[in-house]
Amino acid sequence: MKRLTDFFKKLITFCTNHFSIFRVNVVRVYRRLFKDQHQLTSKTYTDRYPLLFGEASKALMGAERKLKLLSFGCSTGEECFSLRKYFPHARIVGADINSLNLAIAKRKNTDPGISFIFSIPENLLKDAPYDAIFCLSVLCRWEDTKDLQNCEAIYPFSKFSKTAKDLAAMVRKGGLLVVYNSNFRFEDTTAFTDFEIVDAPLSDSGFVHKFDARNIRLLTEHTNCIYRKIA
Questions:
Q1: Average pLDDT in the 118-138 region?
Q2: How many helices, marked H, and strands, marked E, lie in the chain?
Q3: d(CA 164, CA 105)
Q4: pTM
């Protein structure tokens, strides 16, 4: 009996170790194939950032027109559905580059004021300008960068800066750009010159490690993540 037990223990250990190696190799290949993308993980859940959504709602309070919001990197739609709670009358557009995520989001959607689009420039521009663009846990490569001192080879500042600039251009004057859990600070981009920081009681701008414009790891804390367009 003991020999049989030892055999199964060894078999389980063997399978576990080899499965782990296989999984790691699959992940590496996957990340190489999509190395030009932003965040590759689609994890999301309902009302993921309540304090952030609440502060953004306060910052847009008093707007006379019907608001138009963009969830950039909407995954399977939970962010859009959550935003409805904070912006009950807004038109909400969710954009993602994962066709499977979009199919799931569309299948779950029962709100005529929420729509989902494939995230390419021409589709995004059709509904621009937006009163607020939410870019949450998108402009990063977590966990690929978490142990790096220089992230240039994995996720360079130039890639972040270009997308941030494109998004900033689609924000209406007086509107918001909300950037949370990014690998870089929006303040380091040239697009920031058209924005001001919205003062909000937020403890941080996300758990994702920050780097400067030279792709060097930052040791200082960063809390800003809501920006208002002023020009």
A1: 96
A2: 6, 7
A3: 24
A4: 0.83
